[in-house]
Write a structure and sequence with these properties.
Distance between the termini: 23 Å
Number of strands: 0
Strand content: under 5%
Largest sheet: none
Low-confidence stretches: none
Shape: globular
Oligomer: single chain
Mean pLDDT: 82
Order of helices and strands: HH
Length: about 45
């Protein structure tokens, strides 16, 4: 799961997996991106 979240944040997941992560965590893809893993900054914050 952690690897899926890391890849989601990096936009490296296939569409089906990205949709699965969004459904599991109730993420709205139209909302501004927020870090999912607190120990790592979001790529947009680098």
């Amino acid at each position: 799961m952690v690897e899926a979240l890391q890849r989601y944040e990096q936009n490296l997941l296939p569409r089906s997996m990205r949709l699965w992560v969004e459904a599991m965590l109730d993420i709205d893809p139209s909302d501004p991106a927020q870090p999912l893993l607190p120990s790592q900054p979001h790529p947009s914050q680098l």
